[in-house]
Amino acid sequence: MDMAIAALSVDMNMAKTQQELGLSVLRMAMSTDNAAVEEALELVESLDPAIGNNLDVTA
Fold first, then answer.
1. CA-to-CA distance for 40 and 36, rounded, in angstroms?
2. Which residues of 23-58 are buried (b: 16+ CB within 10 A; e: fewer)?
3. pLDDT digit string, tens, across residues 1-59
4. What's residue 25's pLDDT?
């Protein structure tokens, strides 16, 4: 019985560690996504709003 309690404790600690690792990886992915979105927004905001408004269709 003592070994079963020890094994259960080890299993619970391993599950907790795996969950913390999964959350850490998820946070890193979200951080990377946020940085990419911010960079894209900066690029869009830096564009000239007049570009593309006129189309010369005469040749």
1. 6
2. eeeeeeeeeeeeeeeeeeeeeeeeeeeeeeeeeeee
3. 667 988 999 999 999 999 999 999 999 999 888 888 889 989 888 888 777 777 778 86
4. 94
- The DSSP line for 25-37 is HHHHHHHHHHHHH
Verdict on whether the full-model pTM lies above 0.70: no
Q: Tell me the C-alpha distance between 47 and 51, whole Å.
A: 8
Question: Residue 59 is which amino acid?
Answer: A
Q: How far apart are the first and last CA of the chain?
A: 90
CA distance linking residue 36 with residue 29, whole number of Å = 11
Tokens of 41: 């927004």
Q: Specify the length of the chain in residues.
A: 59
